[in-house]
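Chapter summary example: a protein plus thiamine diphosphate.
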Amino acid sequence: MAKNISVPDIGDFKDVEIIEVLVKPGDKIKKNDPIVTLESDKSSVEVPSPFEGKISELKVKIGDKVSEGSILATLEGDEAREEKKPVVEKEIKPQEIQKEEKSNGQITKRKKIYAQAISKDDIDPVETQEWLDSLKGVIENDGPFRAGYLIKKIIDEAYSEGLALPDTRTTPYINTIPASADIKSPGDQNIERKIRAYIRWNAAAMVVRANKKNPELGGHIGTFASAATLYDVGMNHFWRAKTNKFGGDLIYFQGHSAPGMYARAFLEGRITERQLDRFRQEVEPGGLSSYPHPWLMPKFWQFPTVSMGLGPMMAIYQARFTKYLINRGLLKDEGRKIWCHLGDGETDEPESLGAISLAAREKLDNLIFVVNCNLQRLDGPVRGNGKIIQELEGRFRGAGWNVIKVIWGSYWDQLLAKDKVGLLVKRMTECVDGEYQAFKAKSGKYVRDNFFGKYPELKELVSNMTDADIWRLNRGGHDPHKVYSAYNAAVKNKGKPTVIIAKTIKGYGMGESGESINTTHQQKKLDEKDLLYYRDRFNVPLTDKQVKNIEYYKPSDSSKEIKYLKSCRTKLGGNIPERTTFAKLIKTPPLDIFENFMKSTGSKEMSTTMVLVRMLANLLRDKNAAPRLVPIIPDEARTFGMEGFFQKIGIYAHEGQKYEPEDSEQLSSYREDKSGQVLQEGITEAGAMSSWIAAGTAYTNHDIEMIPIYLFYSMFGFQRIGDLAWAAADSQTRGFLIGATSGKTTLAGEGLQHQDGHSHLLASAIPNCVSYDPTFAYEMAVIFRDGLKRMHEKKENIYYYITAMNENYSHPAKPAGSDKGILKGMYLFKEFKGKGKAKVQMLGAGTILREIIKGAEILSKDYGIDCKVWSVTSFNELKKDGMEVERKNLLNPSEKSKKSYVETCLHGEEGTIIAASDYIRSYSDQIRPFVKKPFYSLGTDGFGRSDTREKLRKFFEVDKKHIVVYTLSALANEQLLESKQAEKAIKKYNVDQNKLFPTKL
Ligand SMILES: Cc1ncc(C[n+]2csc(CCOP(=O)(O)OP(=O)(O)O)c2C)c(N)n1
Ligand SMILES: [Mg+2]
């Protein structure tokens, strides 16, 4: 039976043009195969077939206008089978969630609860004890889940009775895992302690030696000293490297703990003594970078982290992107983990905690944060009057994370066990961080007097301990067993991300020179006495003389320690950190995918944003590129006309779509899907940028080349997330950033905050960022295809910033032979012959190229001036080339000078140069030194404001009239034309000579 394929509900649009017909009579099609592409004034969208079958007749052609219900084609015969709408996916059943929670390794091991905070309001301690005994009875007889269930019922009942319950954001100031549930480290502690001591020593020695050589070199000792155990336990027992069978865990190291990673790599034999001696001396090859910088050490570091806050945020999106790849079927689920180490001070950065809700919402159980709470940041305590650990616990619990506090070391276990009434826990909870810091800066006696001494019962509790015993009471983050136990619980946790909040001591082991004192962070010099103390504190087998020479310590390869260290890493697959890539290239899509864009659009108008979106839609038909495209949008798909992607490739949602969208009958209905391709990020440019970085580095982190394309309002790009753009460059991210609605006058009605006149200058500061401001469809297509080739086929470590506009206009055909110029930054677009009264070279970029063209028409017709119009696709690329050529010439003074590309273009050309763009003048001014001719630039300096495009261009003096006036005036200035011509033009075009310069308005 024949069936008609008609236009479905396309929202408010009517009479929409067909711009492509994608089938012909006789074609056999499957359900959802695209039939035609429709284009409204804002977006283009493909219409899929609702049936499978053979096309018997086409009812439409390119250029036809259609509305909802218009028939597009008929399908013939029995094959035209109707299929029902897919059932909405329901991925997770509540019972399964419950099952997962029950299997949480950490909780099931719990047997007893030792400590409860005492309540000062306890009017009936006997009754209290009865309740507690009941609870213990249930735990012992029916297990922890039953106990948890009863408590929950009691709490629910209390709320329904209207009781005001105590705040439950935080738990008492004790370890989350009670001693009875701790899993002891299987490692040989004797050897591990020695290894840790050598790493500590070498990490400190490399900083001190560098500073002895030159105090300019800097470095940090105190941070790694506090975190050594947190790293060692991971390295010895948990962190699995990439092998040919396993993808490897990904570790974000706290930036300024880098010396510790180098010191371990030295013992492993991956870094030489000579390299250690070249810490922070990177100009000659072979030095070690101050912090983790993949750009500088591309075979070692994987993630740049030292700009505080970026590491945690990038780690969250890395974990999310890993799940995205798995859910899209591009990556095997091997249970890999993403670990992120950060400082407690670092958590003040909005980026550090800004995405933690997303991590919980997306159930990122592949993510583990380790917050090193040494209670100090740079100048002093993080929260002198408060408790950073409790604060963080509240925030992470509130966000839905699994929180594991590792506050106290094993030496405290016995004291806590004796604390039957909870007085010790009360004291632990009431002490503030300023006090805790002071305790560890002073002595055992001070702790006895000021911590235990507050309550006679507590003083009594430690009466049989010496001051040295009290001093030995360690913090959880320095206890390898406690850390092991926490890591073990974290890796087994299901359904949630985990944060391990570990309490440590800044400058641990540094004694008077820097243990727990406010100046620890800056400590990079240790004198002889301090060094001897440090050696003795950790039993490093060096003689006094060796200590005085600050020698490194490395036992022989046949020593127990080195063998142990290496065998741990061998068992875990190899080296960490290490950066490798085995990703296969993506073959550049064939030219015919871009063919349409090389032709004139005739009278049809469209914006370059639409061009780009259409190009992406075409790319989705290329079998190599299609699955690798990662469109990333921060809540702006409709602004950019990308809503058609929702149906076509789906929005990634790890739980699928649990609801029927309100617009389900429409063609571009909101479709969330577990294997969706679009990353719809919500309103977070920083998050979207982090996703873009994760996708653009998948070639190394997951050995799969991806093509991330992130579209944003250009004003909320580099200006908003500039530091992430820098980290992306350091990470060697490959992909496209699209600054949409760019330029100061194309986004007319939005005003000062939205109108961008400088993003290209910000992009120009990033050495490996290639940026373009194209005007026409064919320029965009040539640039985009070249970007695909350079980044994803040739694997160049660059990324692209391309601006796109939302101004509709018609596009000419590509001038023959312009490809090279488009890519190099400029080419001759058109010549306007006048009467030879004067000559002018007119350089226009982006949307203002069109004003330049109109200006040239007037100048040639009305004033007889010969104009050559050059389209400048990138002042940034021209500037880079100019600088390089100029430098080469200066370095080779006796050789014949080479010409920069700008000079080559303009060399044989006569005349003054007028350059104009929709950006501030500094953008076009960049090429001034290389043109070697009179040069005048026009631009949009000053604050944007909302008005019509025409008025804005007049205001910033970049419209055709101002271009004519300023060109005539410039020619007069160069004595090439009489000045009265310019005077007349000023009057004719009503140019206000008394208007203030726009930067003052
Ligand atoms: C964005 C940013 N701002 C400032 C710094 C300078 N800085 C380096 S370390 C540090 C203190 C870090 O304190 P914390 O996070 O507690 O780490 P700790 O050294 O105590 O482990 C600061 C402010 C930086 N690296 N990045
Ligand atoms: Mg700190």
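Key point: Residues 189-213 form the longest helix (25 residues).
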